[in-house]
Structure formats: structure tokens, C-alpha cells
Amino acid sequence: MQKWILPVSAAALVLSLVALLANLTGKIGIVDLNKLMEDSPKAQSYEKQLADKYQALTEELEKEKDLSKEEKEKKQAAAYDEFLKTKAELEKKLEREVAASVRTVARRRRLSVVLYKDAVAWGGVDITSDVIRALK
User: On the chain, which terminus has fewer CB atoms closer than 10 Å, C or N?
Assistant: First the structure.
């Protein structure tokens, strides 16, 4: 029985390496997140929502001038927490939508892997503009 373990293990290892190499020879897509954030109407919309939330919270704090120092600090901390919560929600929502758009473009263009541009020294197919269009 033990005579078969080494040959079977070796065959499994070779098959795994062949599958890995076959996958690595596929096309690699690249997404520039900085460009996506600058050029995407969806990302700009979320940034505007966040800026509007900040403006509303700031205006609300400015209206309450008759507060003690402690009350004012508590209100500021609460407003900051609310701002951070909104920011986190919008970031998570945008991240999910970008990921879905990347998957859609990758499938359509038959890409094996999609990486962020910052992680790639050279090579790959830039799909940023396609992802921006798909994000709408």
C-alpha cells in the first residue's frame, strides 16, 4: 500500500502545478483605483453624499452655541462618529459595486486575474475605463 503513496502524491503535485501554470498563462487585468475614484460618476456621487453629510453636521453644531464645553464636546464626538459611520457605509457600498463591476468586465473579457495597478510593475490589460462604464 505504501508503494503507491509516493507515485500518487507526485502525480497529484504535477497535476496541481500544470493547472496552476495553465491559469497563470491567462490574461491579467489591471484596475487603477485612483483613476476610478476620479472619473467614476458613482464614486463622485458617494463623495458628494459624504461632503453633504459633513456640511449638515457642521451646520447643526454651529447652531448650538449655548452649550457648555462638555456638552459641545459630546455633540462634536457624536457628530464625528455619525460622519465616520456614514463614510464606512458608503465605502463598503462602493467597494461591493466596484467588485461586481470588475467581475462583470473580467468575465466579459475572459481575464484570469484582475489586480490593482499599484501592485503591478508592468504588464496586464488596463480595464479601468470598462469598470467605470460598468459601475454606472
Answer: N
Pick the CATH number of 2-135 from 3.50.50.60, 3.40.50.300, 3.30.910.20, 1.10.150.20: 3.30.910.20
Cell numbers 462604464: residue: 133
CA atoms of 33 and 13, how far apart (whole Å): 37
pLDDT (mean) for 116-126: 86
- The predicted pLDDT at position 80 comes to 93
